[in-house]
Amino acid sequence: MDIQDYESLPTSSVAVHMTAGAFAGVMEHCIMYPLDSAKTRMQALIPGPGGGGGVGDVLVKMIRQEGFSRPIRGMGAVVVGAGPAHALYFSCYEFLKNKMMNQRLPSQFNHLVYGAAGCVATVLHDGVMNPAEVVKQRLQMYNSPYKTVTSCMRHVYKTEGLYAFYRSYTTQLAMNVPFQCVHFIAYEFGQSITNPDHSYNPRAHVISGAMAGAIAAATTTPLDVCKTVLNTQQGGVQAQGMVDAFKQVYRFGGIQGYFRGLTARIIYQMPATAICWSTYEFFKYALHSRQDDTHGLDANDGINGIGQSQAISSSSVAASAVAAGATSPRSNSFQGAGLYFNNKTSGPVLLEVTRS
Question: Does the keyword Iron feature in the UniProt annotation (predicted)?
Answer without folding.
Answer: yes
